[in-house]
Design brief:
This protein has 402 residues and is an alpha+beta fold. The protein has a 4-stranded mixed beta sheet. It has a 4-stranded antiparallel beta sheet with strand order 2-3-7-6, with no helix packed on it. 36% of the residues are buried. Helix content is 43%, strand content 13%. Bound molecules: flavin-adenine dinucleotide. Flavin-adenine dinucleotide binds next to strand 1, strand 3 and helix 12. The site of flavin-adenine dinucleotide has 20 residues, from strand 1, strand 3 and helix 12.
Length: 402
């Protein structure tokens, strides 16, 4: 589908669109213009990342050289320096040409925005360009065995030693901790205060005293770990924001995380479900999907998906204009997670018994079944659906209680 051109309110934007499209057509390798087959095709970057192909490496390099892995970040920090309108045009043209995201990372989605707001100039210069180029992969040290939904109960201690902190404690569900290079981590610097006793620190996962233990999931994969800190030394210059002011940084970052999870189905989208179903199940005499029940469900899904995509776009526009409601990310997270779970239920229905294949080459090692199971976690990660509904009830609907 050709991207809308009504957006191009000025000749400059129309020129930008034409140039962007021409550049993408010339520079995006054909292999990076087909839908990802599974999560294994995602380029996460980092010191230990093994590129799946020369095309994947090349695509990251040319996009990073242009600052287009993070198009709206300032050029001084490795970004493209694009305006909100230009960034949206780039996104539309990439979608229209089916270009894959050259890089996905917690650095881009979560830490980057927090550093841009709360980081010192030195912190921005040290970390943002490496995120933009995919050189350093980050993980998120928030949840603990007794601090999930009630995150502010976290107990990992950071003892103030003057020019450094000594960190002791345990995190859990730390996604890709065993593959990450650095961690952004919530620690307790004051045991007497709940929210104002929390600080936000950064450290290298190769630091002495850091260890990880992968947790196996029902999907057979292990995307997260228990993470242990045993007298880890963290220099004070790696404190983001003020000591005791970490909760503000944490909440700001969570809003970005939630908006990102809301878009999870959009990023993973391969062919539209209707097309996939038509290819798998065939059409009836009048050219409609042969299975009437599935036809109805897919039609409803695709209408909801189209509406949600517009809601995401609107939320992005409002955010760029500083007019977004602070609880908007909870709405996006809630609905996007539920929608993605529906998508994978339908994918299983389309695939029928074959979709249950777990290990065959034909099923790409059970890609559909494993992604279906993985999608169940969407309504837990980044804050559960129940918690998002509480936030929506309280902050948007202004209902009493909670
Ligand atoms: C795939 C995945 C990846 C993750 N990655 C990371 C990561 O990289 N880093 C990280 O720090 N964490 C990560 N998490 C952890 C995630 O943030 C927590 O699992 C989540 O916040 C819920 O916390 P909990 O598991 O302790 O559940 P609990 O807080 O114990 O909740 C248990 C149940 O009680 C409900 N509940 C709790 N409080 C309320 C309430 N006030 N009102 C109504 N219902 C309530 C919940 O909705 C849930 O159903 C990940 C989780 C998953 C599933």
């Amino acid at each position: 589908m050709r991207a809308a051109t009504t957006l191009d309110a000025t000749p400059d934007l129309a020129t930008f669109r034409a140039e962007t499209r021409a550049w993408l057509e010339a520079n995006c390798p054909p292999e990076m213009r087909v839908p990802m087959a599974s999560e294994d095709d995602v380029c996460w970057g980092g010191r230990h990342f093994e590129f799946k192909s020369a095309a994947q490496r090349q695509w990251l390099r040319v996009m990073a050289d242009r600052g287009w892995t993070v198009p709206a970040w300032p050029q001084a920090y490795g970004g493209g320096g694009l305006s909100g309108e230009q960034a949206k045009i780039l996104e539309q043209e990439m979608r229209s040409l089916q270009c894959r995201a050259p890089l996905q990372s917690f650095g881009i989605w979560m830490l980057g925005p927090a550093l841009l707001k709360f980081g010192t100039e030195a912190q921005k210069l040290e970390h943002l360009p490496k995120i933009a180029r995919g050189e350093i992969r980050w993980c998120q040290g928030y949840s603990e065995p007794n601090a999930g939904s009630d995150l502010a109960s976290l107990a990992t201690r950071a003892e103030d030693k003057g020019d450094h902190f000594i960190v002791n404690g345990q995190k859990i569900w730390t996604s890709y901790a065993d593959q990450a290079d650095w961690i952004f981590c919530l620690v307790r610097t004051d045991a007497a205060k709940k929210h104002t006793g929390i600080s936000f620190v950064l450290f290298d996962m190769a630091s002495a005293g850091v260890s990880t233990r992968p947790i196996l999931l029902i999907s057979g994969k292990s995307p997260f770990c228990e993470t242990f800190f045993d007298n880890v030394k963290v220099h004070r210059h790696n404190l983001v924001g003020t000591q005791g002011g970490g909760w503000d940084v944490a909440k700001y970052l969570l809003a970005h995380e939630r908006a990102m999870i809301g878009g999870i189905g959009d990023r993973a989208a391969a062919k539209p479900l209707g097309q996939q179903a038509a290819a798998a199940l065939g059409l009836d005499a009048s050219g409609r999907l042969a299975d009437p029940m599935l036809r109805t469900q897919i039609a409803e899904f695709e209408a909801d998906e189209a509406a949600f995509r517009l809601a995401m776009e609107r939320a992005g526009d409002l955010g760029r204009a500083s007019q977004g409601h602070p609880a908007m990310p909870s709405m996006l997270k809630y609905y996007g997670a539920e929608l993605n779970k529906r998508r994978w239920e339908l994918m299983m229905a389309i695939g029928g018994a074959e979709a249950l294949e777990w290990e065959s080459v034909r099923s790409r090692e059970g890609a559909v079944a494993r992604t279906w199971l993985r999608s169940k976690a969407n309504s837990i990660e980044g804050g559960t659906s129940e918690v998002q509904l509480n936030i929506i009830a309280k902050r948007i609907l202004e209902l009493p209680g909670a």
